[in-house]
Write a structure and sequence with these properties.
By secondary structure, this protein is mainly alpha-helical. The chain has eleven helices and two strands, in the order αααααααββαααα.
């Protein structure tokens, strides 16, 4: 089943949020971290990000200075031009996109700057790294945006 095309996964994830939160707060971090690479790989065998692109439609990555430098060079812009045209400072004083969906998202859900995308984009949805368990609020938020996060949480909770 392609989870990103299942019309009920978002609602099911919202309905499971309390269970997921309890699980993440009580789980053994080192045990979960060991399971994540395999669960990540398994999830992405059935999920095609190009079918979904919810992350690009709903979130803005943080643009670190190295990201800004790399992307502006790729686009042939000065760093100040990239910032002026596309970015703003958020409440945490981080550079984020001015608009949503992502300015660089194409109609076919591909990314105009994929090869030089921000590190947050390259790492999203953090399902194969310790951020998944160390930042449970982020994982819970991502569980209603990304079907892979929902699928992995569902699998983890089911194994308990």
């Amino acid at each position: 089943m392609d989870w990103s095309k299942d019309p009920n996964w978002k609602q099911q994830s919202k309905n499971s949020k309390k269970v997921f939160k309890k699980y993440l707060n009580q789980a053994n971090p080192s045990k979960i971290i060991k399971l994540l690479p395999e669960l990540h790989e398994e999830a992405f065998k059935t999920i095609d990000c190009l079918d979904c692109a919810n992350c690009c439609k709903n979130h803005s990555p943080t643009f670190k200075s190295t990201d800004i430098k790399r992307i502006s060079k790729h686009l042939g812009l000065k760093e100040t031009q990239l910032i002026e045209n596309y970015l703003k400072l958020d409440e945490d004083n981080d550079w984020v996109l001015k608009s949503s969906p992502c300015t660089f998202l194409n109609p076919d859900n591909t990314c105009q700057i994929y090869d030089v995308r921000p590190s947050d984009c390259a790492r999203y949805p953090f399902t194969d790294e310790d951020v998944f368990i160390k930042r449970p609020h982020l994982t819970l938020s991502n569980s209603v945006v990304c079907p892979a996060v929902y699928k992995i949480l569902k699998k983890l909770v089911g194994e308990v």
